[in-house]
Amino acid sequence: MDADKGVWRSGGGRGRGTPKGRQLDDAAASEVRGLLGDRPRRRDLLIEFLHVLQDAHGHLSAAHLRALAEELRLSMAEVWEVASFYAHFDLVKEGGAAPPALTIRVCDSLSCELAGAGALQAALADGLDPAEVRVLRAPCMGRCDAAPVLELGHNHIDHATPAKVRAAIAAGDTRAHVPDYEDLAAYRAGGGYGMLADLRAGGDWEAVQARVAASGLRGLGGAGFPSGRKWGFVRAHPGPRYLAVNGDEGEPGTFKDRYYLERAPHLMLEGMLIAAWAVEAARCYIYMRDEYPAVLEILATEIAALEAAGIAGRGDIELRRGAGAYICGEESAMLESIEGKRGLPRHRPPYVAETGLFGRPTLVHNVETLHWIARVCREGPDCLNATEKNGRVGLRSYSVSGRVAEPGVYLLPAGSTILDIIAAAGGMADGHVFKAYQPGGPSSGLLPATICDVALDFDTLQPLGSFIGSAAVVVLSDRDSAKAAALNMLRFFEDESCGQCTPCRVGCEKAVKLMQADHWDAPLLEELCQAMADASICGLGQAAPNPIRLTMRHFAAEVGLPEPARGYGTQQSLERSGA
After folding, report:
1. What's the longest Cα–Cα distance across the chain?
2. Residue 330 burial (10 A CB sphere; 0-12, 13-18, 19+)
3. Can you tell me the distance from the alpha carbon of 170 to that of 297, in angstroms, rounded to the nearest whole number?
4. Tens-level pLDDT at each residue, the chain (579 residues)
5. 243 phi, psi to nearest 5 deg
6. Phi-psi sector, 259: left (phi>0), alpha (psi -120 to 50), beta
7. Using CA atoms, how far apart are residues 76 and 68, in angstroms rounded to an integer?
8. Predicted pLDDT at 573
9. Dihedral, CA atoms, 441, 446, 452, 457, nearest 10 degrees?
10. Are residues 480 and 520 in contact, defined by beta-carbon separation less than 8 angstroms?
11. DSSP-derived pairing of the beta strands 150-152 and 392-393
12. Buried b / exposed e across 359-380, counting CB within 10 Å, b at 16+?
């Protein structure tokens, strides 16, 4: 071999100067490091960091995502798959156009659709410069009592009109408006956190659990599991243990958690700290939906106040921000999201009480459940169990919207019927006659006005093929189409299915196509519903058939089917109830 021409000089190969894939851009890396500051570079903070980048630049460029992957020592593929899972992140590849600086999201949930959201979106899309303002449809924003609603940046505009939107744009009013609420000082002045201090000084967790059980409190996120039994399940497994607060109130028609948090956030926070004390949780995580920017601001402020007052240790409470994914209301999907991953529901067993957040035993409670835990501990079980109506014990917070005179949150006896709820909401809106109602969000389907003497509570609606869920009551009138309402519900499920399991992913899409026909193919739809209910991994796919089945059963004429024999409820029962 010629000594002057070694292999390295004479070889004809074309070597690579860089690894395959996207290269790290120095400028983007510097920007990302500056935005993240001294935050710890933990894997579970990925979604929080994506929010930081999205808020700063209005989108997520490929260069910034590549730099974030470098900071977290993750693959670009892993960062991209998480970012692309959530609706509120805008990903822009090399050479792609960034979205306009301003985005309007128009809610298309059932309540907003009834209030004219479709026409509103069309008017805005036609009347605004698409190069300056982007108009999108979006799922429920938890403001159904003020339909139609839209979000301009982070500013929610209630009872929205094009004129209101133009005025807000002209004023640059794009930030969240924080309402007046009871802060830490006011809450403590009324005795707040006294019970927590007493329990920490020498309380018996089993006695507190018994008190909660005696009140009859059940999970108010929709599942209805007895709250007094959860703590013992979690404590049965060795620590460290965690507590996760499910604030992803995404079921269309539901806004009770927002209602309470925008008024008295410390009832939930004290209930959370009591539950954390009971299970000896090492840390609390609050997962709050991104559609509630005012609540996020309130919680961030009041958690800092708790730390400053020594009621909570620094870092003992972590506030995590969702990113627009309804599926994260399912508890295991929420835990996946807190861990910085896609919100895919987990297979069970193991259950989260044993193997939850970061593989540790985890107590999961809904926002309103913790609100009531604080009240039960302070006031005693009779603040709930002293109320009885129609053979049902307790109170329920009903989110009421649609064709009623005064939409809002109403705290009523758990034995209340739909007619009681409509009466509490000021009766039907002028010119509207009661026709149908959704008792607990889209998952509960649609019931006719003739079924008006059943208590809207846990376990009472299952014989009818429905359930109370999150008590999201949407009232329809004689001016509304049951078929259109059912299609609205299934389109929501189609959009929000995480896609992990085929029965739900494909089933929702096929159902929407079949439901657009003038005459529904009942046997084929029923076969599809059965497959979805039997084989879907989580509650989304299992409950999605309810609007289809109940519409075919009770509103057959609207979907081109023969009118079935009335199996439940009659006009006479409606008249006896005073409708």
Report:
1. 108
2. buried
3. 24
4. 455 655 555 556 677 788 888 999 999 999 999 999 999 999 999 999 999 999 999 999 999 999 999 999 999 999 999 999 999 999 999 999 999 999 999 999 999 999 999 999 999 999 999 999 999 999 999 999 999 999 999 999 999 999 999 999 999 999 999 999 999 999 999 999 999 999 999 999 999 999 999 999 999 988 888 888 899 999 999 999 999 999 999 999 999 999 999 999 999 999 999 999 999 999 999 999 999 999 999 999 999 999 999 999 999 999 999 999 999 999 999 999 999 999 999 999 999 999 999 999 999 999 999 999 999 999 999 999 999 999 999 999 999 999 999 999 999 999 999 999 999 999 999 999 999 999 999 999 999 999 999 999 999 999 999 999 999 999 999 999 999 999 999 999 999 999 999 999 999 999 999 999 999 999 999 999 999 999 999 999 999 999 999 999 999 999 999 876 444 333 333 333 333
5. -125, 135
6. alpha
7. 9
8. 36
9. -30
10. no
11. unpaired
12. ebbbbbbbbbbbbbbbbbbbee
Query: What whole-number distance in Å separates Cα of residue 30 and Cα of residue 13?
Result: 35
DSSP 216: T
The first and second tokens of residue 48, run together, are 């929080």
Is 135:104 a contact under the CB 8 Å cutoff?
Answer: yes
* Angle at the Cα of 42 from the Cα atoms of 38 and 47, rounded to 5 degrees: 95
- Cα dihedral 335, 341, 342, 348, rounded to 10, equals -40
Q: What's the 3-state SS for 219-266? A: CCCCCCCEHHHHHHHHHCCCCCEEEEEEECCCCCCCCHHHHHHCCCHH
In the DSSP assignment, the letter for residue 404 is: B
AA identity, residue 159 = H
3-state secondary structure string across 473-524: EEEEECCCCHHHHHHHHHHHHHHHCCCCCHHHHHHHHHHHHHHCCCCCCHHH
**According to the 3-state scheme, what is the secondary structure of 322-371?**
CCCCHHHHCHHHHHHHHCCCCCCCCCCCCCCCCCCHHHCCEEEEEHHHHH
Does the bond joining 345 to the residue before it have cis omega, within 30 degrees of 0?
A: no
- Which residue type occupies 100? P
From the number of C-beta atoms within 10 Å of its C-beta (0-12, 13-18, 19+), residue 484 rates as: middle
Q: Let me know: does 397 contact 421? Beta carbons within 8 Å.
A: no
What does the block give as tokens for 225? 């599991």
Cα–Cα distance measured from residue 496 to residue 140, given in angstroms and rounded to the nearest whole number: 11
Neighbours of 338 (CB within 10 A): 25
Characterize 252-275 residue by residue with b for buried, 16 or more Cβ atoms within 10 angstroms of its Cβ, and e for exposed: bbbbbbbbbbbebbbbbbbbbbbb
Contact 148, 119 (CB under 8 A): no
Cis bond upstream, residue 148 (ω within 30): yes
Closest C-alpha among 240, 484, 273, 494 to residue 371: 273
Two structure tokens written together for 405: 């005179």
Q: For residue 154, which amino acid is it? A: H
